[in-house]
Amino acid sequence: MSYLPNVLFALLLIGGVGFFVRNVKKLSRNISLGKDIDRSDRIADRWKHMAAIALGQSKMVRRPIAGLLHIIVYIGFIIINIEVLEIIIDGLFGTHRIFAFAGGFYNFLIGSFEILAFLVLLSVIIFWIRRMVLKLPRFWSKEMTSWPKNDALNILYFEVVLMGLFLLMNAADYGLQQMGAIHYVQAGSFPVSQFIASWLPENELTLFYIERGAWWLHIIGILIFLNYLYYSKHLHILLAFPNTFYANLEPQGRFDNLASVTKEVKLMMDPDADPYAVPEEGEEDEVGKFGASDVTDLSWVQLMNAYTCTECGRCSSVCPANQTGKELSPRAIMMKTRDRLEEVGRFIDKEGEVAFREKGDGKSLLDTISEAELWACTSCNACVTECPVSIDPLSIIMDMRRYLVMEQSAAPQELNLMMTNVENNGAPWQYSQMDRLNWKDE
Amino acid sequence: MVIPTMAEKMAEGKTPEVLFWVGCAGSFDDRAKKITKAFAKILIEANVDFAVLGTEESCTGDPAKRAGNEFLFQMQAVTNIEVLNAYEVKKIVTTCPHCFNTLKNEYPELGGTYEVMHHTEFLKSLLDEGRISIEGGKYAGKRITFHDPCYLGRANGIYEAPRDLIRKLEIELVEMKRCKSKGLCCGAGGAQMFKDAEKGDKEIFIERTEEALETKPEFIATGCPFCNTMMTDGVKNKEKEKNIKVMDIAELVAGAKDL
């Protein structure tokens, strides 16, 4: 019977991690619905980019206050995982504070975890105040409706509960150690929780229940949080790393040249090309779609971008269109892309990918992203520069404009005029190409 | 003004050091033509061996590409590249950041690889090589703010060349709240120049002009013909055109030298 907690713990761990792995598989399947794009070049630069931006948080500090608070929570998250490792070992083998043998170093570790936990609590409270009391505009934009707002708050509450439980667990442990309770080895230093300990009852059994209760709730909380990630914008804590690794490293002004178009244009411009030539056997590839009307027309990097977005709204807060009250919000572009991808994922779970590729589900990304949003973009790259995890909303806007223009001829009338001029006179205005040098005599 | 064309140079059996890519705005827009002329005057003054394509130049395709018409863009690109390659062009300088970006970043993949410089970079290099000298002249001590063009700054990371020139002109540079990589767009990029703005509370160029006016400048400096148009309109809208001039860096340099 004494093994019951260990078995229970193992089952819980397997269940929690297993469910998470199942969702990660779904995540990776959804991302791979995107078109292939080669991001296997410049590996050294990619590692550097990831180290600076995801690991080094270099872009977070473009906004110093939020940046600093974020770094505290981030470091807290990473370091406290050492504690989680100890909890897992203790849980599986019925030990207590298995790393205690490290002596002074262990004390230092636990002490620093406590200080971090306290700072994380503090940061999270400030985050909450910024959101709910100061009401920073970027957290209250129109795309931040019920779930996006609740999701953000859930994460903050989760962190408060987890940090609180961690400190309560230590406080009770500290009390038990002082009493010399069996099983509670003298280990760790408790710079924060010793103050909590003084509020706890001095009964050994009560303390034991508090310690065990906090311990179990803490690890259960962590497993729930782990599984919450897939459903939440908080997924960025995992995806920030691959997302920055596979980011676009070219100059931001360089937009990709559609290869399918290049082929057509070369054929058109080639005087030796035979317009009636029949493609050789196996060469006639199906006529691809130009641009994107749905998530499967986007690349896997763009889809990963959508899952990585943590809806911080820094992009939208610097977007000139958004700042002047226009329909466009780069953050909403990412959120809508993710929502649509999830919708496609659910359809595929039910009907299979073949059914989706053949018939679709009767919906598309253009149902939620409006033309007014797409045409409001000045392609200024402010959103791309601002994103702390290298998301590129502009590339999605451009791919969707390409669809509107090349597949649907649905550009605004004035742009059609501009394009006709470029085509006929080699300038966006209606002037003759023969007048191009007139300026020198004026 | 005597402006040699590539065709004339070729007839003489010469390949000029640099091609001045004028761009559509620089060729046809009345305001931008002044920038073109100012820059050409500096090139002549500095004895730069240059030529233009003249009637053989065509739109780079930038507005078409950014409006989503990849076909039209590539048609333009391939045609231009044929002309450029036929003249064995190695180095291009342009006063338009949109032409600059497209020629520099998007043409290589289509077969057109050149050394492309924005005119502020080129002027800076002339200065560094001692081929021109810049002194304050009539602008010394005046208050100026510089509006970063998105396609020069964020798109290509060029922030210092225009500022170095401003400093050389001994003008007092006052930065706007949003500058360099945080700069706010003038509202013309991404083919917006050629259409009405989408519905909103405000025009982007008004927002940007207001920000520029907060610095209480005597001049607003630009490095892009489109930004120049937008800021000029903004200043007019605020009825400040009597006191505040919108000038391209090339115009400031040429003006300081009384060219």
Structure description:
The complex is a heterodimer of chains A (442) and B (259). Chain A is mainly α. Chain A has helices at residues 4-31, 43-55, 64-93, 104-132, 146-179, 193-197, 204-228, 236-245, 259-269, 300-308, 314-318, 320-323, 330-351, 353-359, 371-375, 382-386, 393-407, 413-425. In chain A, helix 1 crosses helix 3 and helix 4 (104-132) runs antiparallel to helix 5 (146-179). Chain A is elongated, with a radius of gyration of 28 Å. In chain A, 38% of the residues are buried. The model of chain A has no long low-confidence stretch (mean pLDDT 93). With 259 residues, chain B is α/β, with parallel strands linked by helices. Chain B is built from eleven helices and eight strands. Chain B has helices spanning 6-11, 23-28, 30-45, 62-66, 70-86, 97-106, 119-128, 160-168, 204-214, 225-237, 249-256; strands at residues 18-21, 50-51, 91-94, 115-118, 143-146, 172-173, 219-222, 245-248. In chain B, strand 3 (91-94), helix 6 and strand 4 form a beta-alpha-beta unit. The termini of chain B are close together. Classes of the chains: A mainly alpha (442), B alpha/beta (259). At the A-B interface, helix 9, helix 12, helix 16, helix 17 and helix 18 of A face helix 2, helix 3, helix 4, helix 5 and helix 6 of B.
Key traits:
heterodimer; A: 442 residues; mainly alpha; 18 helices; B: 259 residues; alpha/beta; four-stranded parallel beta sheet; 11 helices; 8 strands; 43% helix; globular
What would you call the shape of chain B? Answer: globular
Biggest sheet, spatial arrangement of strands of chain B: 2-1-3-4
Can you summarize the main beta sheet of chain B?
4 strands, parallel
Biggest interface reads: A-B, 70 and 75 residues
> For the terminal residues of chain B, how far apart are their CA atoms?
12 Å
Distance between the termini of chain A: 99 Å
Structural class of the helix and strand makeup of chain A? mainly alpha
State which percent range the strand residues of chain A make up: under 5%
How many helices of chain B in DSSP terms? 11
Identify low-pLDDT runs of chain A: none
